[in-house]
Amino acid sequence: MPRIIILFASYGDGHYRASQAIEACLQAKGISEVILLDLMAKSHPLLNEFTKFVYMHSYKSLSSVYGWLYNSTKELQPGDPLHSLLHSLGIRKLHQIIEQFEPDIVIHTFPQLTMPKLLKKTGKSIPLINIITDFDLHGRWIHPDVDRYYVATDDLKLQIESRGIPAEHIQVTGIPIRSSFSEDMQHSSLPDLFDTAHNTEDTGYLNSGKRTVLLMAGAYGVMQDILNICERLLHEENIQVIVVCGRNTGLYNGLRAAMGSHPDLYIYGYVTHVATLMRASDCIVTKPGGLTLAEALECRLPMFLYRPVPGQELNNAKYLQEKGVAHITNSHRQLTEEILSLLHDEDQLSLVLRKIDELRKPKAAELIVDDILNFWHEITIRQGEYSVIL
User: Fold this and answer.
1) DSSP run (H or E) holding 376
2) Distance from CA of residue 390 to its chain's centroid?
3) Same domain, 302 and 379
4) Are residues 285 and 373 located together in one domain of the fold?
């Protein structure tokens, strides 16, 4: 069985979630020697914390600057000085780990492609895999020495081909997500979860006669906006709302104080059962991170993308809006109007769901892992034949 390193980064949690999905699928197939490695955290911990701090603050407070930096470097080419600099960070630490672990395959879920330079330096031959975790392509992902690319859409495949990568090196599989997002569940049943905004004797069942809006509110953090959204939606008798505040305790406490007694409002802090909540909902309001969008597609949820940040998020949002499965909104009034318009129009809702089905890629992690293992088996067979000839 192959030994595998999965390289990720902790700028947001999407790359880590994709890595976990691949790791779980590998382990289910009996591949136990798998290392998940945050290379920047391991090799340059102080620089990693500083760059994460700058990233998060520029992302939140100087979003237009972040968007300009992202878009102005989208056409970055292998061999460009900046490309070479970014992909040389952590090379010494990675060399040590490669020597110790002796992997048969290295997978990237984040575009820090230190491996090609390391292989050139050491003369080693290790298959390299890129799993692109957005619906948008950035030049940092592209390198001619990568053996396999796994992407979310046919459009991304064409974009990579236009960069000179052979079509046979690119597989359209979807973005890998946890298997829990694919499990079947009755729409109305949410046992043991509804213990926050309701009395303890609550059975934990949604009203199956009402439409359910899932609001991933933790990333927004603007109390008045969330209140306005909830109040307007809950003014409709056939709407119920699930709000996930994440680790934003101020938002969670404020919402509970203001509206916690409402019978059609379910308020959560940080949850680990997002898949259950998604599968119980009719639409989602969220930030357009690649993993969250892939999860929403798998759960067949129309998406309302509220105030997307310039950069990969806005580009993700624009792509899905063009495909007819998402709406970009920039005010709470526009957001609630578009949600209610869709949920009250059965024909339009059915059309959106058909378009989602055209885009969704079930069992992406399994498809990726199967293809990687087949690729590895082909390589080992060729190496065996070559050894016999020698």
Assistant:
1) helix 364-389
2) 46
3) no
4) no
